[in-house]
Amino acid sequence: MIWNRDIECMNxxxxxxxxxxSLKQSAGRAYSSVPFYKKKMDEAGLRPExxxxxxxxxxxxxxxxxxxxxxxPYDLFAVPMKKIIRLHASSGTTGKPIVVGYxxxxxxxxxxxxxRLIVAAGGNDEDxxxxxxxxxxxxGGFGLHYGLEKVGITVVPASSGNSERQMMLxxxxxxxxxxxxxxxxxxxxEIAEEMGITKGRHRLRLGIFGGEGHTPEMRLEIEKxxxxxxxxxxxxxxxxxxxxxxxxxxxxxxxxxEDHFYPEIIDPDTxxxxxxxEKGELxxxxxxxxxxxxxxxxxKDITYLDPEPCKCGRTSIRMNKILGRTDDMLIIxxxxxFPSQIESVLVGMEHIxxxxxxxxxxxxxxxxIEVHAELIDGSLLERIGxxxxxxxxxxxxxxxxxxxxxxxxxxxxxxxxxxxxxxxRVIDLRGKM
Length: 433
Ligand code: DLL
Fold this sequence. Notes:
By secondary structure, the chain is an alpha/beta fold. The protein folds into two domains: 1-325, 3-Layer(aba) Sandwich (Rossmann fold); 330-432, ANL, C-terminal domain (GMP Synthetase, Chain A, domain 3), CATH 3.30.300. The protein contains eleven helices and 21 strands. Strands 4-3-5-6-7-8-9-14-13 form a nine-stranded mixed β-sheet, sandwiched between helices. A four-stranded antiparallel β-sheet has the order 10-11-12-15. The protein has a four-stranded mixed β-sheet with strand order 20-19-18-21. Helix 6 links the parallel strand 3 and strand 4. Helix 5 (104-121) packs across helix 6 (139-151). Bound molecules: 5'-O-[hydroxy(phenylacetyl)phosphoryl]adenosine (DLL). 5'-O-[hydroxy(phenylacetyl)phosphoryl]adenosine is lined by residues 90, 133, 139-140, 210-213, 232-237, 241-242, 299, 301, 322, 325.
Protein backbone atom coordinates (compact mmCIF):
# COMPACT_ATOMS: atom_id res chain seq x y z
CA MET A 1 0.00 0.00 0.00
CA ILE A 2 1.09 3.56 -0.65
CA TRP A 3 -0.02 6.24 1.81
CA ASN A 4 0.08 9.26 -0.52
CA ARG A 5 0.20 7.97 -4.08
CA ASP A 6 -0.16 11.44 -5.63
CA ILE A 7 3.11 12.57 -4.06
CA GLU A 8 5.05 9.35 -3.63
CA CYS A 9 4.57 8.29 -7.26
CA MET A 10 4.88 11.72 -8.93
CA ASN A 11 6.97 11.89 -12.05
CA UNK A 12 10.35 13.61 -11.82
CA UNK A 13 9.33 16.78 -13.68
CA UNK A 14 6.32 17.32 -11.44
CA UNK A 15 8.24 16.73 -8.21
CA UNK A 16 11.05 19.04 -9.33
CA UNK A 17 8.56 21.79 -10.20
CA UNK A 18 7.01 21.40 -6.75
CA UNK A 19 10.44 21.45 -5.10
CA UNK A 20 11.46 24.60 -6.96
CA UNK A 21 8.40 26.55 -5.93
CA SER A 22 8.78 25.40 -2.29
CA LEU A 23 12.50 26.16 -2.30
CA LYS A 24 11.87 29.72 -3.46
CA GLN A 25 9.38 30.19 -0.65
CA SER A 26 11.59 28.55 1.95
CA ALA A 27 14.65 30.64 1.02
CA GLY A 28 12.45 33.77 0.95
CA ARG A 29 11.07 32.99 4.41
CA ALA A 30 14.54 32.33 5.81
CA TYR A 31 15.86 35.59 4.32
CA SER A 32 13.04 37.78 5.53
CA SER A 33 12.54 36.23 8.99
CA VAL A 34 15.90 34.93 10.24
CA PRO A 35 18.70 37.52 10.63
CA PHE A 36 21.30 34.71 10.50
CA TYR A 37 20.26 33.72 6.97
CA LYS A 38 19.82 37.34 5.82
CA LYS A 39 23.35 38.19 6.93
CA LYS A 40 24.82 35.16 5.21
CA MET A 41 22.98 35.80 1.95
CA ASP A 42 23.77 39.53 2.00
CA GLU A 43 27.46 38.78 2.52
CA ALA A 44 27.40 36.48 -0.49
CA GLY A 45 25.53 39.10 -2.55
CA LEU A 46 22.64 36.69 -2.86
CA ARG A 47 18.88 37.33 -2.77
CA PRO A 48 16.11 34.72 -2.66
CA GLU A 49 15.03 35.78 -6.17
CA UNK A 50 18.39 34.56 -7.50
CA UNK A 51 17.00 31.05 -7.09
CA UNK A 52 15.41 30.42 -10.46
CA UNK A 53 16.13 26.73 -10.94
CA UNK A 54 16.81 23.85 -8.52
CA UNK A 55 20.54 23.84 -9.31
CA UNK A 56 20.69 27.44 -7.98
CA UNK A 57 20.47 25.94 -4.50
CA UNK A 58 24.23 25.48 -4.83
CA UNK A 59 24.62 29.26 -4.54
CA UNK A 60 23.43 29.09 -0.93
CA UNK A 61 25.99 28.55 1.81
CA UNK A 62 25.89 25.52 4.05
CA UNK A 63 24.40 25.51 7.53
CA UNK A 64 26.18 23.44 10.19
CA UNK A 65 25.46 22.17 13.68
CA UNK A 66 27.47 24.94 15.38
CA UNK A 67 25.15 27.50 13.74
CA UNK A 68 22.31 26.00 15.80
CA UNK A 69 24.45 26.09 18.94
CA UNK A 70 25.56 29.68 18.31
CA UNK A 71 21.93 30.73 17.91
CA UNK A 72 20.73 28.85 20.99
CA PRO A 73 17.91 28.61 21.85
CA TYR A 74 15.56 30.49 19.49
CA ASP A 75 17.52 32.73 17.12
CA LEU A 76 17.04 30.54 14.05
CA PHE A 77 13.26 30.42 14.49
CA ALA A 78 11.41 32.05 11.60
CA VAL A 79 8.08 32.63 13.36
CA PRO A 80 7.10 34.34 16.65
CA MET A 81 7.10 32.00 19.68
CA LYS A 82 3.31 32.08 19.90
CA LYS A 83 3.23 30.12 16.62
CA ILE A 84 5.59 27.44 17.98
CA ILE A 85 3.63 24.66 19.65
CA ARG A 86 6.34 22.07 20.29
CA LEU A 87 10.05 22.07 21.09
CA HIS A 88 12.48 19.19 20.79
CA ALA A 89 16.18 19.14 21.52
CA SER A 90 19.12 16.96 20.77
CA SER A 91 21.97 16.75 23.20
CA GLY A 92 25.44 16.77 21.83
CA THR A 93 28.50 15.43 23.56
CA THR A 94 29.44 18.89 24.80
CA GLY A 95 27.71 22.04 25.96
CA LYS A 96 24.18 23.15 25.23
CA PRO A 97 21.76 21.06 23.20
CA ILE A 98 20.38 22.21 19.88
CA VAL A 99 16.75 23.26 19.99
CA VAL A 100 14.15 22.93 17.26
CA GLY A 101 10.60 24.35 17.18
CA TYR A 102 7.53 23.23 15.26
CA UNK A 103 4.42 25.14 14.19
CA UNK A 104 1.05 23.42 13.87
CA UNK A 105 1.66 22.94 10.13
CA UNK A 106 5.12 21.54 10.84
CA UNK A 107 3.64 18.91 13.15
CA UNK A 108 1.04 17.98 10.55
CA UNK A 109 3.70 17.62 7.86
CA UNK A 110 5.86 15.61 10.22
CA UNK A 111 3.07 13.10 10.94
CA UNK A 112 2.37 12.87 7.20
CA UNK A 113 6.03 12.05 6.46
CA UNK A 114 6.14 9.43 9.21
CA UNK A 115 2.80 7.92 8.10
CA ARG A 116 4.28 7.42 4.62
CA LEU A 117 7.29 5.53 5.96
CA ILE A 118 5.17 3.38 8.27
CA VAL A 119 2.93 2.29 5.39
CA ALA A 120 5.94 1.82 3.09
CA ALA A 121 7.44 -0.51 5.74
CA GLY A 122 4.24 -2.55 5.67
CA GLY A 123 2.31 -1.19 8.68
CA ASN A 124 -1.48 -0.91 8.53
CA ASP A 125 -4.45 -0.09 10.75
CA GLU A 126 -4.73 -3.71 11.97
CA ASP A 127 -1.33 -3.38 13.66
CA UNK A 128 -0.39 -2.74 17.28
CA UNK A 129 2.91 -0.86 17.48
CA UNK A 130 5.09 -0.80 20.56
CA UNK A 131 7.24 2.31 20.49
CA UNK A 132 10.42 1.67 22.45
CA UNK A 133 12.09 4.96 21.52
CA UNK A 134 12.44 7.41 24.38
CA UNK A 135 9.59 9.92 24.65
CA UNK A 136 10.81 13.38 25.57
CA UNK A 137 13.06 15.96 24.01
CA UNK A 138 14.43 13.26 21.67
CA UNK A 139 12.41 13.31 18.44
CA GLY A 140 12.20 9.49 18.13
CA GLY A 141 9.27 8.70 20.46
CA PHE A 142 6.84 11.50 19.64
CA GLY A 143 7.87 11.63 15.97
CA LEU A 144 6.96 8.02 15.30
CA HIS A 145 3.97 8.13 17.63
CA TYR A 146 1.90 10.67 15.69
CA GLY A 147 2.71 9.10 12.32
CA LEU A 148 1.55 5.69 13.59
CA GLU A 149 -1.67 7.20 14.94
CA LYS A 150 -2.30 8.94 11.63
CA VAL A 151 -2.22 5.55 9.89
CA GLY A 152 -4.73 4.27 12.46
CA ILE A 153 -2.35 1.88 14.17
CA THR A 154 -2.87 1.11 17.86
CA VAL A 155 0.11 2.71 19.58
CA VAL A 156 1.69 1.38 22.77
CA PRO A 157 3.87 4.31 23.92
CA ALA A 158 6.10 2.09 26.07
CA SER A 159 9.18 4.37 25.72
CA SER A 160 12.65 2.91 26.26
CA GLY A 161 14.02 0.81 29.11
CA ASN A 162 12.42 -1.52 31.64
CA SER A 163 13.07 -4.39 29.28
CA GLU A 164 11.29 -7.20 31.12
CA ARG A 165 8.15 -5.11 31.35
CA GLN A 166 8.48 -4.34 27.62
CA MET A 167 8.36 -8.07 26.95
CA MET A 168 5.34 -8.55 29.18
CA LEU A 169 3.50 -5.75 27.35
CA UNK A 170 4.53 -7.14 24.00
CA UNK A 171 3.02 -10.51 24.84
CA UNK A 172 -0.09 -9.33 26.67
CA UNK A 173 -1.00 -6.50 24.27
CA UNK A 174 -0.15 -8.58 21.19
CA UNK A 175 2.19 -6.01 19.65
CA UNK A 176 2.81 -6.72 15.97
CA UNK A 177 5.31 -3.93 15.27
CA UNK A 178 8.33 -2.85 17.27
CA UNK A 179 9.57 0.71 16.69
CA UNK A 180 12.98 1.63 18.11
CA UNK A 181 16.71 1.52 17.60
CA UNK A 182 18.11 -1.69 16.10
CA UNK A 183 20.51 -2.09 19.04
CA UNK A 184 17.67 -2.01 21.56
CA UNK A 185 15.68 -4.50 19.48
CA UNK A 186 18.70 -6.78 19.60
CA UNK A 187 19.01 -6.41 23.37
CA UNK A 188 15.29 -7.07 23.82
CA UNK A 189 15.65 -10.29 21.85
CA GLU A 190 18.06 -11.52 24.52
CA ILE A 191 15.61 -10.62 27.26
CA ALA A 192 12.87 -12.41 25.35
CA GLU A 193 15.06 -15.49 25.10
CA GLU A 194 15.81 -15.42 28.83
CA MET A 195 12.11 -15.13 29.59
CA GLY A 196 11.35 -18.07 27.29
CA ILE A 197 9.37 -15.88 24.88
CA THR A 198 10.23 -17.72 21.72
CA LYS A 199 9.00 -16.97 18.19
CA GLY A 200 5.58 -18.60 18.50
CA ARG A 201 4.89 -16.80 21.78
CA HIS A 202 4.69 -13.22 20.56
CA ARG A 203 2.90 -11.66 17.57
CA LEU A 204 5.68 -9.40 16.35
CA ARG A 205 5.95 -9.39 12.53
CA LEU A 206 7.63 -6.10 11.65
CA GLY A 207 10.48 -3.91 12.91
CA ILE A 208 10.64 -0.20 12.08
CA PHE A 209 14.15 0.81 13.08
CA GLY A 210 16.09 4.05 12.99
CA GLY A 211 18.02 6.61 14.97
CA GLU A 212 21.28 4.75 14.36
CA GLY A 213 22.74 2.60 11.62
CA HIS A 214 23.00 -1.14 11.36
CA THR A 215 24.76 -3.23 8.76
CA PRO A 216 22.95 -5.74 6.49
CA GLU A 217 24.53 -8.47 8.65
CA MET A 218 23.04 -6.97 11.82
CA ARG A 219 19.65 -6.61 10.11
CA LEU A 220 19.68 -10.33 9.26
CA GLU A 221 20.61 -11.20 12.83
CA ILE A 222 17.69 -9.17 14.21
CA GLU A 223 15.28 -10.60 11.64
CA LYS A 224 16.38 -14.13 12.51
CA UNK A 225 16.13 -13.66 16.26
CA UNK A 226 12.66 -12.16 16.17
CA UNK A 227 11.29 -13.79 13.02
CA UNK A 228 10.32 -10.37 11.62
CA UNK A 229 10.93 -8.16 8.60
CA UNK A 230 13.27 -5.36 9.69
CA UNK A 231 12.94 -2.03 7.89
CA UNK A 232 14.94 1.10 8.38
CA UNK A 233 14.20 4.80 8.45
CA UNK A 234 16.31 7.92 8.83
CA UNK A 235 16.08 11.44 10.12
CA UNK A 236 17.68 14.03 12.35
CA UNK A 237 16.40 16.61 14.80
CA UNK A 238 17.79 19.59 12.91
CA UNK A 239 15.69 18.72 9.85
CA UNK A 240 12.55 17.27 11.52
CA UNK A 241 13.40 14.10 13.46
CA UNK A 242 12.39 10.70 12.03
CA UNK A 243 10.52 10.99 8.73
CA UNK A 244 13.16 12.28 6.33
CA UNK A 245 13.22 8.89 4.62
CA UNK A 246 12.22 5.27 5.09
CA UNK A 247 12.44 1.89 3.42
CA UNK A 248 9.64 0.03 1.73
CA UNK A 249 9.33 -3.74 2.04
CA UNK A 250 11.81 -4.18 -0.87
CA UNK A 251 14.52 -3.09 1.65
CA UNK A 252 16.50 -1.40 -1.10
CA UNK A 253 17.21 2.09 0.16
CA UNK A 254 15.19 4.72 2.01
CA UNK A 255 12.61 6.75 0.06
CA UNK A 256 13.14 10.43 0.74
CA UNK A 257 10.09 12.63 1.33
CA GLU A 258 11.24 14.91 -1.43
CA ASP A 259 8.30 17.29 -1.30
CA HIS A 260 9.50 18.33 2.17
CA PHE A 261 13.27 17.77 2.07
CA TYR A 262 15.67 18.44 -0.81
CA PRO A 263 18.70 16.13 -0.75
CA GLU A 264 22.19 16.74 -2.13
CA ILE A 265 25.42 14.79 -1.77
CA ILE A 266 28.65 16.75 -1.43
CA ASP A 267 32.31 15.99 -1.17
CA PRO A 268 32.87 16.66 2.55
CA ASP A 269 36.33 18.10 1.91
CA THR A 270 35.63 20.46 -1.00
CA UNK A 271 31.89 21.07 -0.59
CA UNK A 272 31.40 20.28 -4.30
CA UNK A 273 28.08 18.67 -5.24
CA UNK A 274 28.40 15.06 -6.37
CA UNK A 275 26.33 13.02 -8.81
CA UNK A 276 23.79 10.30 -8.14
CA UNK A 277 25.57 7.12 -7.06
CA GLU A 278 28.62 8.93 -5.70
CA LYS A 279 29.30 8.57 -2.00
CA GLY A 280 29.58 11.70 0.09
CA GLU A 281 27.98 13.78 2.82
CA LEU A 282 24.22 14.19 2.76
CA UNK A 283 23.06 17.81 2.74
CA UNK A 284 19.37 18.52 3.33
CA UNK A 285 17.23 21.61 2.78
CA UNK A 286 13.78 21.85 4.33
CA UNK A 287 11.18 22.93 1.76
CA UNK A 288 8.14 23.44 3.95
CA UNK A 289 9.37 23.93 7.54
CA UNK A 290 7.96 27.07 9.11
CA UNK A 291 9.40 26.95 12.64
CA UNK A 292 13.05 26.54 11.83
CA UNK A 293 13.90 26.40 8.14
CA UNK A 294 17.23 24.75 7.34
CA UNK A 295 19.05 25.70 4.18
CA UNK A 296 21.70 23.24 2.96
CA UNK A 297 22.24 21.58 6.34
CA UNK A 298 25.36 19.41 6.45
CA UNK A 299 24.26 16.21 8.17
CA LYS A 300 27.76 14.61 8.40
CA ASP A 301 26.08 11.35 7.37
CA ILE A 302 27.70 9.53 4.47
CA THR A 303 25.55 7.89 1.82
CA TYR A 304 24.64 8.08 -1.87
CA LEU A 305 21.42 8.72 -3.78
CA ASP A 306 19.58 6.52 -6.25
CA PRO A 307 16.97 8.23 -8.49
CA GLU A 308 15.69 5.02 -10.16
CA PRO A 309 12.01 4.35 -9.50
CA CYS A 310 11.59 1.46 -7.06
CA LYS A 311 9.88 -1.90 -7.62
CA CYS A 312 7.25 -0.80 -5.09
CA GLY A 313 5.96 1.87 -7.49
CA ARG A 314 7.32 4.87 -5.59
CA THR A 315 9.33 7.29 -7.71
CA SER A 316 11.02 9.17 -4.87
CA ILE A 317 14.80 9.30 -4.73
CA ARG A 318 16.22 6.73 -2.35
CA MET A 319 19.19 7.18 -0.06
CA ASN A 320 21.37 4.21 0.70
CA LYS A 321 22.03 3.06 4.26
CA ILE A 322 24.25 5.49 6.13
CA LEU A 323 27.77 4.19 5.70
CA GLY A 324 29.14 6.22 8.61
CA ARG A 325 29.44 9.79 9.80
CA THR A 326 32.27 12.10 8.88
CA ASP A 327 32.78 12.55 12.62
CA ASP A 328 32.68 8.86 13.62
CA MET A 329 35.23 7.94 11.03
CA LEU A 330 38.33 6.89 12.89
CA ILE A 331 41.65 7.73 11.34
CA ILE A 332 44.03 5.02 12.45
CA UNK A 333 47.59 5.42 11.26
CA UNK A 334 46.32 7.41 8.32
CA UNK A 335 43.67 4.89 7.29
CA UNK A 336 39.95 5.72 7.45
CA UNK A 337 38.00 3.20 9.52
CA PHE A 338 34.23 3.16 9.97
CA PRO A 339 32.68 1.18 12.85
CA SER A 340 30.21 -0.30 10.32
CA GLN A 341 33.10 -2.06 8.55
CA ILE A 342 33.98 -3.81 11.80
CA GLU A 343 30.33 -4.71 12.44
CA SER A 344 30.06 -6.30 9.01
CA VAL A 345 33.00 -8.59 9.83
CA LEU A 346 31.86 -9.64 13.29
CA VAL A 347 28.12 -10.10 13.03
CA GLY A 348 27.10 -13.51 11.80
CA MET A 349 30.53 -15.12 12.49
CA GLU A 350 30.42 -18.50 14.10
CA HIS A 351 30.85 -18.35 17.93
CA ILE A 352 30.56 -14.55 17.96
CA UNK A 353 27.51 -12.69 19.24
CA UNK A 354 26.29 -9.40 17.72
CA UNK A 355 27.54 -7.13 20.53
CA UNK A 356 30.91 -5.44 20.15
CA UNK A 357 32.95 -2.41 21.13
CA UNK A 358 35.89 -0.66 19.52
CA UNK A 359 38.51 0.77 21.86
CA UNK A 360 40.93 3.28 20.36
CA UNK A 361 44.18 4.04 22.16
CA UNK A 362 47.38 5.92 21.41
CA UNK A 363 50.85 4.69 22.25
CA UNK A 364 53.39 7.42 21.55
CA UNK A 365 52.36 8.61 18.10
CA UNK A 366 50.75 5.32 17.14
CA UNK A 367 46.98 4.84 17.21
CA UNK A 368 45.69 1.36 17.85
CA ILE A 369 42.29 -0.24 17.78
CA GLU A 370 41.22 -3.14 19.90
CA VAL A 371 37.98 -4.82 18.94
CA HIS A 372 36.08 -6.44 21.79
CA ALA A 373 33.73 -9.13 20.59
CA GLU A 374 31.40 -11.21 22.71
CA LEU A 375 31.49 -14.98 22.61
CA ILE A 376 28.20 -16.86 22.38
CA ASP A 377 29.57 -19.68 24.52
CA GLY A 378 31.75 -18.57 27.49
CA SER A 379 33.35 -22.00 27.87
CA LEU A 380 35.44 -21.22 24.79
CA LEU A 381 37.49 -18.92 27.02
CA GLU A 382 38.94 -22.01 28.67
CA ARG A 383 39.82 -23.72 25.40
CA ILE A 384 42.90 -21.63 24.69
CA GLY A 385 43.81 -23.26 21.38
CA UNK A 386 40.37 -22.70 19.85
CA UNK A 387 40.18 -19.21 21.32
CA UNK A 388 43.47 -18.19 19.75
CA UNK A 389 42.50 -19.64 16.41
CA UNK A 390 39.23 -17.69 16.48
CA UNK A 391 40.99 -14.45 17.45
CA UNK A 392 43.48 -14.97 14.68
CA UNK A 393 40.71 -15.58 12.17
CA UNK A 394 38.91 -12.37 13.16
CA UNK A 395 42.12 -10.34 13.04
CA UNK A 396 42.79 -11.65 9.58
CA UNK A 397 39.29 -10.81 8.35
CA UNK A 398 39.50 -7.32 9.88
CA UNK A 399 42.84 -6.73 8.20
CA UNK A 400 41.38 -7.67 4.81
CA UNK A 401 38.51 -5.19 5.24
CA UNK A 402 40.27 -2.37 7.08
CA UNK A 403 43.78 -2.66 5.58
CA UNK A 404 45.33 -2.18 9.02
CA UNK A 405 46.18 -4.43 11.93
CA UNK A 406 43.91 -4.41 14.92
CA UNK A 407 43.88 -6.27 18.20
CA UNK A 408 41.01 -8.58 19.01
CA UNK A 409 39.80 -9.48 22.47
CA UNK A 410 37.09 -12.11 22.89
CA UNK A 411 35.05 -11.50 25.99
CA UNK A 412 32.46 -13.31 28.12
CA UNK A 413 28.86 -13.50 26.93
CA UNK A 414 26.82 -10.52 28.25
CA UNK A 415 29.88 -8.52 29.32
CA UNK A 416 29.50 -5.67 26.82
CA UNK A 417 27.14 -2.95 27.98
CA UNK A 418 23.67 -3.09 26.34
CA UNK A 419 21.92 0.06 25.18
CA UNK A 420 18.30 1.04 25.42
CA UNK A 421 18.70 3.90 22.94
CA UNK A 422 21.53 4.52 20.54
CA UNK A 423 24.45 2.13 21.10
CA UNK A 424 27.86 3.54 21.97
CA ARG A 425 30.25 1.33 20.06
CA VAL A 426 33.44 3.37 20.02
CA ILE A 427 35.44 4.17 23.13
CA ASP A 428 38.10 6.63 22.10
CA LEU A 429 40.75 6.87 24.78
CA ARG A 430 43.16 8.96 22.71
CA GLY A 431 44.02 12.10 24.61
CA LYS A 432 42.61 10.58 27.78
CA MET A 433 45.56 8.34 28.59
O1 DLL B 1 17.88 10.06 15.70
C1 DLL B 1 15.95 11.00 14.63
C2 DLL B 1 15.39 9.65 14.44
C3 DLL B 1 14.74 9.03 15.49
C4 DLL B 1 15.46 9.03 13.20
C5 DLL B 1 14.16 7.80 15.30
C6 DLL B 1 14.87 7.79 13.00
C7 DLL B 1 14.22 7.16 14.05
P1 DLL B 1 19.02 12.76 16.27
O2 DLL B 1 19.03 12.28 17.66
O3 DLL B 1 19.14 14.22 16.01
O4 DLL B 1 17.71 12.33 15.54
O5 DLL B 1 20.20 12.01 15.52
C8 DLL B 1 20.37 12.15 14.15
O6 DLL B 1 21.23 9.91 13.99
O7 DLL B 1 22.41 12.45 11.75
C9 DLL B 1 22.42 10.00 11.95
O8 DLL B 1 23.79 10.12 12.22
C10 DLL B 1 21.78 9.07 12.98
N1 DLL B 1 20.72 8.28 12.35
C11 DLL B 1 19.39 8.44 12.41
N2 DLL B 1 18.77 7.46 11.70
C12 DLL B 1 19.76 6.69 11.17
C13 DLL B 1 19.80 5.54 10.34
C14 DLL B 1 17.28 11.05 15.34
N3 DLL B 1 18.71 4.93 9.89
C15 DLL B 1 21.52 11.28 13.68
N4 DLL B 1 21.02 5.05 9.99
C16 DLL B 1 21.70 11.30 12.19
C17 DLL B 1 22.17 5.62 10.43
C18 DLL B 1 20.99 7.22 11.59
N5 DLL B 1 22.18 6.70 11.22
